[in-house]
Amino acid sequence: MKEQESLDRLQELRAVIHEHNYRYHVLDAPVISDYEYDQLLLELRKIEAEHPEWVTPDSPTQRAGAEIAERFVKVQHPAPILSLANAFSGADLVAWRDRIARLDERVLTCDYVLEPKLDGLTVVLHYADGLFVRGATRGNGEVGEDITTNLKTVTSVPLRIPTRKDGPRPPKRLVVRGEVFINREDFLALNARLSEGGERTYQNARNTAAGSLRQLDASITASRPLRILNYAIVDFQGQDAPASQRETLEYLARLGFAVPAEAAVYKTIEEVVAACEAWVDRRKTLPFEIDGMVVKINPLQLAASLGFVGKDPRGAIAFKFPAQEVTTKLNDIVVNVGRTGVLTPNAVLEPVEIGGVIVRQATLHNFDYIAEKDIRVGDRVLIKRAGEVIPYVIGPVADARTGSEVAYVPPSVCPECGEPVSHVEGEVAWYCVNPACPEQRVRNIEHFVSRATLDIVGLGIKIVEQLVRAKMVEDAADLYALDRARLLGLEGFAEKKVDNLLASIEASKFRPLARLIFALGIRGVGEVVSADLAGAFGNLDALASANQEDLERIEGIGPNIAEAILDWFSHPANKKVLRKLKAAGMWPVQTQDAVSGRQPFAGKNFVVTGTLSSFSREGVKEYIQALGGKVVGSVSKNISYVVAGENPGSKLDKARALGIPVIDEDGLRQLAETL
Ligand code: IVH
Fold first, then answer.
1. Residue 264: left (phi > 0), alpha (psi -120 to 50), or beta?
2. Which CATH superfamily is domain 605-674 in?
3. CATH 2.40.50.140 in the chain, residues?
4. Given the residues 2, 46, 74, 117, the one annotated as active site
5. Strands 312-313, 308-309: parallel, antiparallel or unpaired by DSSP?
6. pLDDT mean across residues, the chain
7. Mean pLDDT of all residues in 464-473
8. Closest Cα partner for 259 from 246, 244, 270, 241?
9. Taking residues 108-129, what's their average pLDDT?
10. Active-site residue flag, 654
């Protein structure tokens, strides 16, 4: 490519990648697949590798931040980064309004903005002529720490504004305040990943977010699922500065910043109080933790003119939700066995109410945690329930001890199967390593059929336990040899239920290889590693015969995971599982290699509408694709078949109007056999 062509392409790539980043991370509405996105980034990296002089700090390639800081440099904030006074009730809010109305009676007629109070870490983002030049922590409110490199790895922090071509021109200088946090689900997934790998888990999302931002090695920050929401302008040099809090949020959004979507304007303090009280319960509908709501006087000039009390501006106040921490008695410590054999201690509590929910059990994380915190059976313990997260024990109330408390000794044998437990030096987790442990069997099969893996519809934990107890399955492969007559003999199994179950087990054979690899439950092999392995090896035979070197050649697979994979495939019980899966025809191959398989749906387009009983949404798509067909979103002349389940939508009417054949899920299976 000629020099100018390369440069043009580089600029084009940066613009489209910025746009896709914005759509993905801020709008939550991506229009291209992750694969396509990676290809764009790859192409950009290639051009930049050929022309290092063209690399600019706002290039999307600069997010990964590989350089390691030795310590953080101090940053003087352009204006004080203030805190907030607290209100604990509706009456407190009304009293606040009355107080400030005495200082300025315009308060009696102004409106308010109500925003969620994110439980994260404040950061301050500096932009010069639209370019992200510096990011800092709050520090003491006057001086913070420079965490620019780390913040660049947070994908919802714009590196250049506006992020979209049609956005407003950037001001000469803009300093924005936001909150960095981790979504509840991402936090649970992060902990699950760590615990599967035998690593120490985090206690709560807030501390994890804070710790991640203050990493000297930005690649660690990059590996954490951090997000940001922005809510204030700290400094502005340019034209048409927003005049109200509401305009601030709208303006920031137009520049490409993520802002709290739940922010709302209210005319009176009474409306604000009602909304705050409703949020006490409504908070659980949010994907992130909040510890209250922030009430802000909407006109910025009025808010500023009210001044401060210490570090708290008078023009805003935090409405704090009722505390989610209580103390209760620790009656016992029980140990659960997980899928990979990890033993997890759980607290059995004297039932206690936290935020309207009765809590009877709480997690104690791991055995080291119990020892470090010196938690004893019989102790009064402090329990925290943070939103939907599993309640956990913060620690003992040592002052309440009577002397009858008993120090805890971790089990030396598995509580489920009685075999000795084992511990890898340097890891926190203790494992039951007996592959025949019944509890591990249930957990393994549960994982095998779960939504994230083979997604076998209608096979929940209760049925898995029932099948294991009835000795009809010992391992997941036995699912493919279930006998119809024996199933009918089980309690609660009528003809229809049995047929649906067998049909959805059968349908799982059309799942992509990556899902099967993930389903095997190899330690450290999650969704991403599974996809990498499927791509690299193409089928299970090739993966099973790979050696350490073959495995470590794959990016993202280090010696530990490679060893876990080798270990899994060398185990006789697992070899048996593989033999049975293969014999049952449960042996998917990676799609590019699947050309040898029968492709009866090649060249055919399908639309699916309504709920199917033996396929999930994703499942029916993968089934059709595995047989060569394409699944399309809307009905048109080019559609070959419409697959309709229960409660179909308007797509069914449209199909009928166009005379397109409509079939049900049995019809789909028949079609696969007859075409
Ligand atoms: S406004 C003058 N808005 O809560 C501006 N703060 O307890 C004062 N916080 O230090 C802050 N969400 O870290 C504001 N929507 C929001 C917020 C928010 C979370 C944090 C912020 C502040 C703390 C005060």
1. beta
2. BRCT domain (3.40.50.10190)
3. 325-407
4. 117
5. antiparallel
6. 89
7. 91
8. 246
9. 96
10. no
